[in-house]
Design a protein that fits this description.
Layout: E1 10-15, H1 25-30, H2 39-47, E2 51-53, E3 56-57, E4 69-74, E5 91-94, E6 98-103, H3 120-128, E7 151-157, H4 160-171, E8 176-184, E9 191-195, E10 198-200, E11 208-210, E12 215-216, E13 219-227, E14 231-238, H5 245-252, H6 267-270, H7 277-287, E15 293-301, E16 308-312, H8 317-329
Parallel strand pairs: 7-15
Antiparallel strand pairs: 1-4, 2-3, 2-4, 5-6, 6-7, 8-14, 8-15, 9-13, 10-11, 10-12, 13-14, 15-16
Length: 331
């Protein structure tokens, strides 16, 4: 799926005329002077859920009746070449098939128009001497991704075969991706499953939301790890991997990830904090300038050798300092 959190995605609205009745949507759009896109790219956008007909996602073989409003989200074309950059990397594991990296917060996973350089992919191209031409061309070798301000473990494929096998393993839920998050408020249950579909927000097109429109199955398991006066520390296992999934799911429950400005975990939630909790909240927000979310463990079977692999990474210093303050003042 095209990453829907790219802020440089352009939206174009096309109203099908009466003469379009009976014509395939992909063919009709490929002739639109408002779009000037090839039929292949139109089909890719349809497959990625970037084209809506009267607000609903449809297949490329959909036939128009005439009069429909078609909304097309057009992400930028990826860069044609990615330069390697000597950016420090925390390599947890490396062989000729794959690499596991512990990504620091603040590092973008792959290039985009807003971040054409200085990304994890640029660092990997430099370190490895290149990455396989698989997946999307601006994220070669990337099997799954982390948001810029989320830290933790990522798998990168070094061959096209490995890339395909790892993506299949993730789709079949054979890769355990475990996170640590501090969330605002207290969950009703100490463990549970959030099974709510996620799609692009119709109000804020750079964000995701729990919605039944143009959405995909999204499943998040959680277990309470520790409880503070105003916050819960939870261990999370992803069953699916939608964009912003953890942040969206917990925000929807009224318990946004602490420090998350996009989904209500920073100023918005803390406006309701009063009395002695307010100074502590302000102190904690000063300690962590991002969302309190860390991908701390990866468990999977090596797709080529069959070896069982289990990697863990401690949260970075800012997250650990947050927990130190909570242990001392937040109970």
């Amino acid at each position: 799926m095209v990453d829907p959190d790219r802020t440089d995605t352009v939206e174009v609205t096309v109203v099908a005329d009466d003469g379009a009745a009976g014509e395939r949507l992909d063919k009709y759009l490929s002739t639109s002077p408002d779009l000037k896109l090839s039929r292949n790219r139109i089909q890719k956008l349809l497959a990625d859920g970037m084209i809506l007909v009267d607000g609903e996602a449809v297949a490329s073989k959909f036939r128009l009746k005439g009069g429909e409003t078609v909304t097309v989200g057009i992400p930028p074309e990826p860069p044609s070449h990615i330069e390697g950059e000597a950016i420090p990397l925390d390599i947890v594991y490396e062989d000729r098939h794959l690499v596991v990296v512990n990504k620091p917060p603040g590092l973008v996973t792959h290039p985009a128009v807003g971040n054409p350089a200085g990304t994890l992919v640029n660092a990997l191209v430099h370190h490895l001497g290149g990455l396989p031409d698989c997946g999307e061309s601006d994220r070669p070798g990337i099997v799954h991704r982390l948001d810029k301000n989320t830290s933790g473990l990522l798998i990168i494929a070094r061959t096209e075969e490995t890339h395909g096998l790892l993506q299949q393993a993730i789709q079949e839920r054979r890769v355990k991706r475990q996170y640590l998050a501090l969330i605002c408020g207290h969950l009703a249950e100490e463990s549970g499953r959030i099974d709510l579909p996620i799609g692009r927000s119709l109000r804020h097109r750079t964000r995701m939301a729990v919605t039944n429109q143009n959405s995909r199955e999204s499943v998040t398991d959680y277990t309470l790890k520790d409880r503070y006066r105003s916050y819960d520390l939870v261990e999370i296992v992803l069953q699916t991997g939608r964009t912003h999934q953890i942040r969206v799911h917990f925000s929807h429950l009224g318990h946004p990830v602490f420090g998350d400005p996009e989904y209500g975990g920073r100023e918005k939630w803390h406006r309701g904090i009063f009395g002695p909790e307010r100074p502590l909240a302000q102190k904690l927000l000063g300690v962590l300038q991002r969302q309190a979310l860390h991908a701390g463990r990866l468990v999977f079977v090596h797709p080529i050798t069959g070896e069982a692999l289990d990697f863990a990474a401690e949260p970075p210093a800012d997250f650990q300092e947050l927990l130190v303050v909570l242990d001392a003042e937040g109970r």
